[in-house]
Amino acid sequence: MSAPSPAAPLLDVQDLSVAYGRIEALTGVSLQVQAGQIVTVIGPNGAGKSTLLGALMGVLPARAGQVLLDGEAVQAAPVAARVARGLALVPETRALFASMSVVDNLRLGAYRFRQEPAARHREALDEVYALFPRLQERAQQAAATLSGGERQMLALGRALMGRPRLLMLDEPSLGLAPLIVRDIFRILDTLRARGVAILLVEQNARAALRLADHGHVLELGRVALAGPAQALADDPRIVEAYLGAHSSHQARLAA
Ligand SMILES: Nc1ncnc2c1ncn2[C@@H]1O[C@H](COP(=O)(O)OP(=O)(O)OP(=O)(O)O)[C@@H](O)[C@H]1O
Fold first, then answer.
1. Residue 92 lies in a domain
2. What predicted TM-score, i.e. pTM, was given to this entire model?
């Protein structure tokens, strides 16, 4: 992994606005991710978190603003060009090929390296299996037969087969038991230590802020608060709205 450039962050989002027809889902969103950092975006349902990731990946057009990768504007670039520059997205739906085996789903993640020798593919697969031994045990099983936690591992493993520099995750904890969430977040920590930058969209604010270096609170398509993750976790407004046992969003989530 190359050293972080002091001049340009890996990802620099400047005043990004995205709309669905006349509905503006994101308004003037700015954030940065440096190499080797975990940055989280938390916020309630409908705040625009998935829209943000879709726009960064290039599946949704930006209405205004800039997306810079290593200082270079990519907001008009197609998805494939962003993938080639090291972006990967694990969508909320996981988007697995249900009838295909675990190992074939993983191989698809390395599609952009299809010209590389088989030995390199084996190496990449072994790296994923070392992180997720469960996937190796179930290599020949159809993805449809996996548990929710295993599906999330497979979605993450498939993204890693593309050797991303910036991994974007849309609510990886969704629907998973706390122990599985802990395992997944521990792996994100390991990936950061290996130099992979992560943009983590989460409704599980507590777990996300514990893991991340920086955080952004998205509300109604705007960044309402941003700062070091620890400072946000200690901010009474965040505690009240997102972290307290009886916080308004927690209460809404539990309803
Ligand atoms: N395809 C679409 N067409 C019209 N409006 C949309 C579309 N997708 C999302 N929206 C609207 O854009 C806003 C942001 O949605 P988005 O899915 O990005 O929020 P989110 O923070 O990811 O929510 P959640 O946590 O529920 O996934 C919402 O008001 C939503 O209704």
1. no
2. 0.90
Name the one residue in this structure whose structure tokens are 């050293």: 3
Residue 6 domain-assigned (yes or no)? no
Q: Report residue 86: phi and psi, to 5°.
A: 105, 10
Return the best residue to mutate from 51, 56, 252 for the ligand 1 pocket (most ligand atoms within 8 A of CB).
Answer: 51
Strand order in the sheet with 166-170: 87-90, 166-170, 197-202, 38-42, 214-219, 222-228
Other beta carbons within 10 angstroms of residue 191's beta carbon come to 19
The complex's ipTM works out to: 0.94
Using a 6 Å cutoff on CB, does residue 157 contact ligand 1?
no
Does a structural domain hold residue 4? Answer: no
How far CA 40 is from CA of 7, 43, 127, 143, 162, in Å, comes to 22, 10, 25, 28, 22
Asked if 139 contacts 170 with a C-beta cutoff of 8 angstroms, the reply is no
- Per-residue pLDDT band for 6 (boundaries 50, 70, 90) equals low
Closest C-alpha to ligand 1, atom 12:
25
Query: What's the domain range around 147?
Result: 97-163
Ligand 1, residue 43: give the atom nearest the CA.
21
